[in-house]
Write a structure and sequence with these properties.
The protein is α/β, with parallel strands linked by helices. Helices cover about 25% and strands about 15% of the residues. The chain contains 25 helices and 36 strands. The structure holds iron/sulfur cluster. The site of iron/sulfur cluster has 13 residues, from α1 and α7.
Length: about 900
Amino acid sequence: MGSEVKTTTCYMCACRCGIRVHLRDGEVRYIEGNPEHPLNKGVICAKGASGIMKQVSPARLTRPLRRKAGAERGAGEFEPISWDEAFSILEKRLASIRSTDPKKFALFTGRDQMQALTGLFARQFGTPNYAAHGGFCSVNMAAGMIYTIGGSFWEFGGPDLERAKLFVMLGTAEDHHSNPLKIALSKFKRDGGRFISINPVRTGYSAIADEWVPIRPGTDGALLLALNHEIIAQGLYDREFVARYTNGGQLVIVDPASPRHGLLATDEDADAANPQYPQNQLWWDRHANRPVVSHTPQADPYLFGDFTLPDGTRVRPAFQLLAERVGEHSAEWAAGITGIPAATIRRLAHEMGVTARDEKIELPIAWTDCWGNEHQTVTGNPVAFHAMRGLAAHSNGFQTVRALAILMSLLGTIDRPGGFRHKAPFPRAIPPSAKTPTGPEGVQPNTPLAGLALGWPGSPEDLFVDAEGKPVRIDKGFSWEYPLSVHGLMHNVITNAWRGDPYPLDTLMIFMANMAWNSTMNTVEVRKMLNDRGADGEYKIPFLVVCDAFQSETTAFADLVLPDTTYLERHDVMSILDRPISEFDGPMDSVRVPVLPPKGECKPFQEVLIELASRLELPAFVDGEGRRKYRDYPDFIVRHETEPGSGIGFLAGWRGADGSKALLGEPNPAQWQRYAENNCVFKHETPPSYRYMRNWNRGYMEWAQRVRLRRWGDPILVHLYSEVLQRFRLAAQGKWPGRRPPERLAQRVATHFDPLPFYSAPLEAQATDLEKYPLAAITQRPMAMYHSWDSQNAWLRQIHTHNYLFVNPRTASAQGIADGAWMWVESQWGRVRCMGRYSEAVEPGTVWTWNAIGKSPGAWGLAPDANEFTRGFILNHLISDRLPGETSNSDPVTGQAGWYDVRVRILPA
Ligand code: SF4
């Protein structure tokens, strides 16, 4: 066989770097970064280089397994079966569910990169019960940003560090965009940029920050309100940007007695342009001193004031309402909540504001806006932000992220050089047009779901509830409990199914999600639930299927285990229909190709889904006669189109019969080969005039419509004021003409669906005796391991096999805990013994540890005395998915798990 080098895409974390795999005699000898890959340019991290050890891990699952008759769940007693048998079991069971009540089947996945396929499978099956890990991870970041600016961080957009002068990072340690961000940061610093990190802990990227601003967890919303306050009070907002590109100048009806209170005033005689996203809102024109339809040529809106329309309706510009709201939130107020001195908050705001104002960028790029105005240059304000789970994973995170998006907008940094920039297919409409069904009739036997399992509600009418307002989804997503749960609520699934609330499941299929250990908020209880039986002696969740490449804590509970391949053994796509690897200057997508044959009888989960979909005769996977359409997954990827003849498939590159078309074109049988010849990546560069101001850029919009990235070409104004939220609030106040929440939820919806950002303490903090449990406890993902994925990796285990609880020396010594000593960390939900480590890099009111290093004995192929069992711990044992009063420990807007909200105390052990 000899030596050879194959290119593919790394999957030791979710960053998707290009790699070169060096093989000798068919075995991996080493893995290096691919210098020709546009994302990582040859850079590789410790995880990426250690992929070689994944292949030889003793934790690999290599055969389909069935729980032994009579063996208890969790005991891990299995017998090997053939794939034929496994498929027969599944086919029989799933066909029966599909023909009776498809929602009794649920598919939940972890940090997979194939949601376009898993989502299609679920929809075709007809079940609403599908989601990936987002509700547990960072849905607040996605939803808070997308409902405000039409885009978000990481796959969807990011900081333009090439041109920024000031970079502010909040709540991020090690990121999804790891290597590209490290490359960009090192250049940014060399070019003289200033980097401020706002975080309770100084780890990861923050190590090279010029300034670390420690903050108490869960209080970022207060800081951001105060920063917005200062930016407006000091006159440092970009008035022109706010007036033209946000809804700040649009008039809001101010009449508490009216059913239209808080909605935007419109001119009903004007052309709405698009009934889905009407364009007939009003400004009060400064020149004519009268109301005009917004963006009327030559008009310029008042941002402040109080006006009366000719019909007597009182209105105020949205910006006026925002200014009033943030006016209540001074730096002194925020200082008491965040622990950041008021002078520091004022200085930060001033630095952001003057950098944005005085260091403007001007690029000689002509472009035309959506209203037909021609601009000779693209300008930008060089202040860039990046934020992630530290802001998101709190029960107040949605409004916190809204406050961040508003700050970025006041500084005029949205899709402009030096600020935040979108990545295709973003920006999207606010909210995006994809919708779920709106009632139980959307779920029918032997029929695909009448909508998507996950969508973007724009009003109460878009919720997925029955006539009484009860949830249709098992996780209660898109119900009044979590109306904007756009990523679902993975953390609710097992608990709800066990309770039979809103109904019991029959079969739960889990793909690469460790839902019985680190991907749950109440590890101990969830493990009991998986083992619990009803009065009839049957398990309360009757059938559990786990597909994973490794023997995790969750596989032990399975009735059926399906052995997945590793990333080096499969085809895979980072699809434009899902989360592609696009960069600022145009769409990009990429693939994995197998560089090794599957180990043992491993089968990629993609192939499992294609096989099952064909056997179950799901319409998109069979022809008119019910015959199988696709040979296998690679064949599916090449030939599947979103609609017959649409020219849109999972991959955007080398389309058309001869591979000459990009983004849109007929299927190309040689598509995989073309990707393999091109470093497994496809890049489409748009002309410079389409690269900025895309929310309002006519040229970009027309092109995006042509290639079907966008349905409509309407401008996407930044929602400083969220009319979408106000619609839900009106419903809760009994004023909305349509659906209304159940009485018990009305106050909660009215409070949290505030159209303007506000701060409230996380729900868990409100339900905790803070005298007894004064410290915040959080986790971070280590740089050397991606969650629990590499607990079995021999090289990475040399970096860490167990974790410590990091405590500020002042806090630890006050409790008599020595550096390195055993200690207890205790919440109102439980206690864990762990080893403490002094660290100056954590603010005194916070303790933290690495996520998912501690393991359950017997899992991951580790020795019985492995450090992961004897010294490691996971903080999840201290967290609950329920709060006193039986409310969920989740954000009431999005359902985001509030797993960074737990309060603890520490004691010597
Ligand atoms: S950052 Fe992630 S994708 Fe990139 S090399 Fe490291 S593990 Fe692989």
